[in-house]
Amino acid sequence: MKAIIPAAGYGTRFFPVSKAVPKELLPVGDRPAIHLIVEEAIEAGAEEVIVITSPDKQLLAEYFRNDPVWHTRLAKKKGALAKLHHLEEISGRVIFVDQHEQLGLGHAVLQAAPLLEDETEPVLILLGDALVLGGEVAASTAMLEISKERNNASVIGLELVPPEKVSSYGIAAGKPDGSKDIYRLSDLVEKPSMEKTPSDMAVAGRYLLSPRIFTLLSTLEPGHGGEIQLTDAIAALLREEAVYGYLFTGTRCDIGNPEGYLKTLRLANRS
Ligand code: UTP
């Protein structure tokens, strides 16, 4: 399986920090958020992780670049050396692709398409500023299992949100499919009003999508906010193929703004 981590956004909600530090590199414990996300992808079975970045965010590639000087610096520090070896191991699976214009999440995902032309199985997409903490099984691992049980169908991660917050998310409509946590989806709506929302199940930063998504993204007109929206492409996908939603057990944490980041640190501290 291949994974994509879109991490090329401007991070305006975290300005001025984002002027110098990509939000995806903010630390959660002893590791940057994106390190944890790469680990989640690899644990779920990704052989290759494509990080979508931009020429302004070279620090991301720098973090995953093997640098022999650190072997010398850490030679006598056993614990840190073990961490270096682990980082080098996961870095060997990470490659970078630039998104030159920040035209939205769907456009970011599309930048990986040339590398995935021969793909026939679903591709895992993990937002670079979203962590899923807690939960019995990692969200991506559970989603892969659900997909396998359903003939390799697409599965998207969902979380419940309060009614007054639905207008900040992509919201799913669907019917339970053999379990109270799994839904066969009938629609996805980007940022609906509280009055018009089809449910309280929000798209939550983890997607396992049929490669057909790339064709749909390539013909999509800009949607909400003038951006190429991944949600719109998934809405088109579910009119052609079965797409399932999974209400995962962990908590989705958004590190893309100061308040969300502080909440993430509090939660990570407890678990
Ligand atoms: P966000 O919408 O949360 O990121 O996208 P953003 O655009 O950086 O946010 P603000 O509003 O300016 O603060 C979710 C993920 O998708 C990536 C982001 O880097 C983030 O990890 N993204 C977003 C891209 O890679 N390219 C884009 O054009 C937009």
Distance between the termini: 29 Å
Number of strands: 13
Low-confidence stretches: none
What is the CATH architecture term? Alpha-Beta Complex
Pairing-aware structural class of the strands and helices? Answer: alpha/beta
Helix-strand pattern, N to C? EHEEHEHHHEHEEHEEEEHHEEH
How does this model look, in words?
A 5-stranded mixed barrel has the order 8-11-9-10-12. A two-stranded antiparallel ribbon has the order 2-3. The longest helix is centred in the first third of the chain and has 14 residues. 32% of the residues lie in helices and 27% in strands. The chain is of the alpha/beta class. The protein is globular and about 60 Å long. It binds uridine 5'-triphosphate (UTP). Uridine 5'-triphosphate (UTP) binds next to α6.
Topology, element by element:
Layout: E1 2-6, H1 17-20, E2 27-28, E3 31-32, H2 33-44, E4 48-53, H3 58-63, H4 69-73, H5 78-91, E5 94-98, H6 105-110, E6 123-126, E7 130-133, H7 139-149, E8 154-160, E9 170-179, E10 182-190, E11 201-209, H8 212-218, H9 230-237, E12 243-247, E13 251-254, H10 258-270
Parallel strand pairs: 1-4, 1-6, 4-5, 8-12
Antiparallel strand pairs: 2-3, 6-11, 7-13, 8-11, 9-10, 9-11, 10-12
Helix pairs in contact: 2-7, 8-9
